[in-house]
Design goal:
The protein is mainly alpha-helical. It has helices at 4-16, 18-31, 44-49, 59-63, 65-77, 82-91, 93-103, 114-123, 127-157, 161-176, 198-211, 221-237; strands spanning 182-183, 196-197. A two-stranded antiparallel ribbon has the order 1-2. Helix 1 (4-16) crosses helix 2. The termini are far apart.
Length: 259
Amino acid sequence: MQNYYENKFESLLLECGHEIAKQKIVEDLLYKSSQPKNGIFKNKFDMFWQANFISSLTVENVRSENYILALSQYIRFNLVDKNICLNYLNLDVQSFILAVRYSGLIIHSNHHSWCVLKEIEQEVKNETLYIFFQTVRHLQSQYKHRLETYEDIKNKLNIGQVTAMAFGSLYAYQYLIPHQDYINYLPYQFDKDENNSAEMIWKAFDHIVKTSRKNTKKLTEQSIALALRNKLMPFLIGEGVSGSGLCCTNLSVKGFSAI
């Protein structure tokens, strides 16, 4: 089976020389909208990294942003070839680490590419790489712990989407709107030492609303008004709420199961 990127590289080589060809071929991979036929290859990234010209990559090549991105996508979408990763790693450790980071695999500890990456960790004796994988394991452990805590809180609250939107709006009004960019501390966050961007918190609200229990009954103006009265009035009139902030443990409203 012919390799599109191998053939394309040969034509670029005749047209503009070896180094320019290596720059243009990775741009073709990353930024060309049309897709080559994969044939025996898993996808276009698999085809690209199995082309013969890959063996001619230099340290300068693998340090470039485009080649780091190309490797990151290969790692993300494939059960990667260990030799391809090792060859890249032998050229530049930091660029290989950046590719793994860009791939998004750190929060997906069960991704199939970790089988190969763990083998590489065992085989390659490099302090920088060792520290990186140690950090990865710590982050994965912390992320798993946070997910478990989130699921536990979510199951205990069992709130509907309208309720999630109402409480999210109150929280945003009190803590997000008065601040700009990064917020040093927000009540009820998991780790008090974390800096939170307003953008990330809005994304968290969006996720909470989308994953909250969907309403089984058709929403009407009356049902929404009743839900908002039950959820918001304790805060507006100062009854049924202990303390001054918006906290899940202080929400003494009735009818969480309604909406």
